Amino acid sequence: MAKRGGFPGGAMPGNMANLMKQAQKMQRQMEEQAKEMESKEFTATAGGGAVEITVSGSREILKVKLAEEVVDPDDIEMLEDLIVAATNEALRKIDEASASAMSKLTGGLGSMPGMPF
């Protein structure tokens, strides 16, 4: 005779409460990690160090540093390309640091299909 009531898959009410506590703890840790990321700075260079860009973890450009020799009025396009390249590299560093931190928090859960993190 089949049991009536209960939770699907045989989950017990105590297990569900424990799961909810763990989820809340993980959410708090993720919020703390996001705040920590915002306070960090990421620097990248292009053109062998001729252009240096510093970006905050909240993706705001904080500093642009140009070597004197890269400022050529006859080749503005090259300077623009170097700035774009350095900025994109700094943004990639943010993404990598964020993904690494998230992976540590979720213990690999992020690789499960259908999971929002």
Give the uncertain stretches in residue-range form.
Answer: none
Total helices: the number is 2
- Strands in their spatial order, largest beta sheet: 1-2-3
Largest sheet: 3 strands, antiparallel
Helix content: 40-55%
Number of strands: 3
Task: Write down the overall geometry.
Answer: rod-shaped
Structural class: alpha+beta
Proportion of strand residues: 15-25%
What's the alpha carbon Rg, rounded to whole Å? 23 Å
Distance between the termini: 40 Å
Q: Mean pLDDT, as a whole number?
A: 83
Structural overview:
The protein has 117 residues and is an alpha+beta fold. It has two helices and three strands. It has helices spanning 13-39, 76-106, and strands spanning 41-46, 51-56, 61-66. The protein has a three-stranded antiparallel sheet. A hairpin with a 4-residue loop joins strand 2 and strand 3. The model has no long low-confidence stretch (mean pLDDT 83).
Fold topology:
Layout: H1 13-39, E1 41-46, E2 51-56, E3 61-66, H2 76-106
Antiparallel strand pairs: 1-2, 2-3
Notable features of this structure?
117 residues, alpha+beta, 3-stranded antiparallel beta sheet, 2 helices, rod-shaped
